[in-house]
Structure formats: C-alpha cells, structure tokens
Amino acid sequence: MTDRDTDRSAVYATENLWCRTVERATSADGSLATTIAGSQVVLSAERRFGSVESVSAFVCAVTAMPGFVSLWPDVPPVFVRQRRGISKAHWQGDTIAIPDTATYLREEVVLHELAHHVVAHTHPGVPSHGAEFRAALCRLLSLTLGDEAGWSLSVLFAQSGLPVGSV
User: Fold this and answer.
1) Across the strands, what pairs with 23?
2) Quick check: is 1 in a domain?
3) Which of these, 60, 125, 141, 162, could form a disulfide with 150 (CB 3.0-4.6 Å)?
C-alpha cells in the first residue's frame, strides 16, 4: 500500500517555479545566469520535443546513460505512448503517456514521469511525490541538464519545506 501523497501540490508548485526560471534561458547558447539561494548558477534551457516519438527516443537515451544505469541498474525499460486527450501526462506500470501538445512535450515533464517509474521500482510503496521521488527527479535533471539544474531544483524544494531523499 502506498502512503498518502500529501506533497503533490507543493511539488507541482515548486516544479512550476523552476520551469519559469529555466524558460528565461534565452541567450544565444540557451543558458541563463541566475541567482538561487544566494549562489550564481548557469542553467541550461530544457529540451522541447516535436513529437511523442522524439520523447521516446530521449527516454531511451536517458535510461541508457552510464549515470542512470549506475544509479538504478535494476529499473526495467519504460515505454512512451501518446495519451488520448490533452489533460496531463502520467506514468503507470511501465508506460509514460504524454499528450502530443507543446505544454507536455518538454524535458521537465518527461523527467517527472520517468522519476515516477524509477521510484516505483526502487522504493515501492512510498508516496508518489515524496522525498525519494524528488531525489530521483533532481538526479535525472543533473544527468540531462547538468548538476546545476538538479541542485537548483533541490534547493527550491528545500525552500518550500520539501526535503529531498536519497536515490
């Protein structure tokens, strides 16, 4: 049985804050110098995808990364499919379902759903948006966008009173 998911709305609010920060990454090289918790960091712009097929290719590439495999060697493959309707992306079982709209065809959304997959196989029964989920999401951001991305989201989680667990 899974514990109650009491942090869901706070996690979404913090992720939205992080996404709004990254959306300002408009320099020629797609990066943004910003201050988070008193530290100057350079954040890379997140990837935007043109199709569900490109999301699937990205997920395959991420899960094949040496950093992913060394952190989570026993996590089974995850599949990506187009979700009917445009209400939201979700993960269930071994599948990420994502609407074919610009709102959801973005790196942070895909990594959020991939973090659900990782945590379900490494920490079964924990709350869906709990500390382990937040840790996995931050590690995934570090793997794909650089250490500054994962660190910055973990700091924003901490400032929101949401501790980040271990992976």
Assistant:
1) none
2) no
3) 141
Q: Is 10 exposed, middle or buried (0-12, 13-18, 19+ CB in 10 A)?
A: middle
pLDDT in tens, 37-71: 888 888 888 899 999 999 999 999 999 999 999 99
SS3 38: coil
- Backbone conformation region of residue 84, classed left if phi is above 0, alpha if psi is from -120 to 50, else beta: beta
What does pTM read for this prediction?
Answer: 0.92
Closest CA to 72 of 161, 5, 132: 132
Asked whether residue 165 is domain-assigned, the answer is no
Can you read off the two tokens belonging to residue 38?
């008193």
Question: Does residue 45 sit within a domain?
Answer: yes
Q: Which domain holds residue 100?
A: 8-159
